[in-house]
Write a structure and sequence with these properties.
5 helices, about 200 residues, Rossmann fold, alpha/beta, two-stranded antiparallel sheet, eight-stranded mixed beta sheet
Amino acid sequence: MRIVVFGAGGRAGRRVAALAAARGHEVTPVVRDRSRHSTNGLAGAVDGDVTDVANVGKLVAGQDAVIMTAVRLDMPSVEFYSAAARALVAARPRRLVAVGIGTMLEVQPDVAVHDSPDFPAEHRAFSLGHVAQLDAFRAAPADVDWVVLAPPPVVLSDEPFSGGYMTGGSALLPGTAFSYGDLAAALVDEVEAPRHHRELVAVAR
């Protein structure tokens, strides 16, 4: 398959690009500025801005799938994720798999982790950015086949793929240990053999 990976310079994106390439796919890793990243593991990396509609359209054209792992901390989270989601939807990808965040998952019906009374206020804005991304995907035309995978709301480890993971719905799963290797496997698996469509899906192990 031909797969474009936005945010390929990050901890998740780099692993996604490497795994997809190792599985024999033709990967286009996209970073905002190649000069800021080591090219190790990013063969064929190109500069790109996931919030730029025209730029995203050119990068997505002809691709079989898009994996979105990009993040920006130099601008409001809601602003970034909303703009990125709109640009991705406008490109009308055949398959769109994006990273969510565990704090957007529900601890009880209609109550997200970030709405819990003891949730740190300083982290809530970032979580709401992912909610904005999800809302934009939900408003996408019916022919845009997207899924958002949300790992547990803990700091991910740098361990390789553990060999297995489980998926659920929009509720928080009991597993806590999760690595970037696990996340990469879940993302690439959803590109190769789509099991979830137009929904938020919790992943854990």
